[in-house]
Amino acid sequence: MRLTQEGHLLQLTWMPRFFPVNCYLIEEEDGLTLIDAAMPFSVQGIMDTATKLNKPVNRIILTHAHGDHVGALDELKKRLPAALVYISERDSALLRGDRSLRADELQTPIKGSVPAKITTVPDILLREGDAIGSLTAISTPGHTPGSMSYLDQRTGALVVGDAFQTFRRTAVSGTVVPLFPFPAMATWNKAKALESAMKLLRLSPKLLAVGHGNLLKAPVEQMKFAIKQAEEMQKKGGN
Fold first, then answer.
1. Out of 10, 173, 206, 213, which could bridge 193 as a Cys pair, Cβ 3.0 to 4.6 Å?
2. Which helix (H) or strand (E) holds 53?
């Protein structure tokens, strides 16, 4: 596991050169907030990092319910029974393994590894604008119908799950990066993903933290370029 720290944010990365999977610990005055639960084998790395920081993990927040973001959730909840689990109201259905679409949603198939055996029941269902410690929840559908991002109001750090990737190239969810196409392959709706990317750009983040790839400092210009690429490719009807 690789550990990278920027201010209050710690990025934990597994398989950084081949198939990077990230989760994040956010330091708060009362302890730690974990964003995403990575893979089943990530449990010990998360626990060890929290132990070294000598702070309790009080909250587990999920950006979305794909398997590489919730894989360690059940075991973490067993080891951290007091930690509250948060996910968007919409993706709470995916966490239960329910791929069905709602009547008001674009009827494109939900893709990616939706878990089938997660037993953890979320404590709090999030909606746009909810505050979780220093973080504000931002609805960013596209990769999944209920994907959410989280902005640290203290620092401008923005944790976006798979709304963007930075591995191999900075790209909007749904834009195929040939050397790492997997986030695009797992994207529910590219048009919604592009709308959400534009929404995130308007926040002018100071740091972009993604599910797959390195932290990106002063990310605005690279986000703009990724959005432009996504717009051009969607106009052409391709990836």
1. 173
2. helix 43-53
- DSSP H or E segment with residue 49: helix 43-53
Q: At what angle do helices 190-201 and 220-236 cross, to 10 degrees?
A: 160
The predicted-structure confidence for 33-76, as pLDDT tens digits, reads as follows 999 999 999 999 999 999 999 999 999 999 999 999 999 999 99
Q: What angle do CA 31, 152, 190 make, to 5 degrees?
A: 125
Tokens linked to 141: 């559908």
Q: Do 11 and 5 form a contact (C-beta atoms < 8 A)?
A: yes
With 0-12 / 13-18 / 19 or more C-beta atoms within 10 angstroms meaning exposed / middle / buried, residue 125 is middle
Q: Which amino acid is at 229?
A: Q
Residue 204, number of CB atoms within 10 A of its CB: 11
Q: How many CA atoms lie within 13 A of 65 on its CB side?
A: 30
Segments of 31-178 assigned E as strands: 31-35, 57-61, 84-88, 124-126, 131-132, 135-139, 148-152, 157-159, 164-165, 171-172
Nearest of 162, 158, 218, 118 to residue 22 by alpha carbon: 162
Residue type, 190: K
Site of tokens 């490719």 = 233
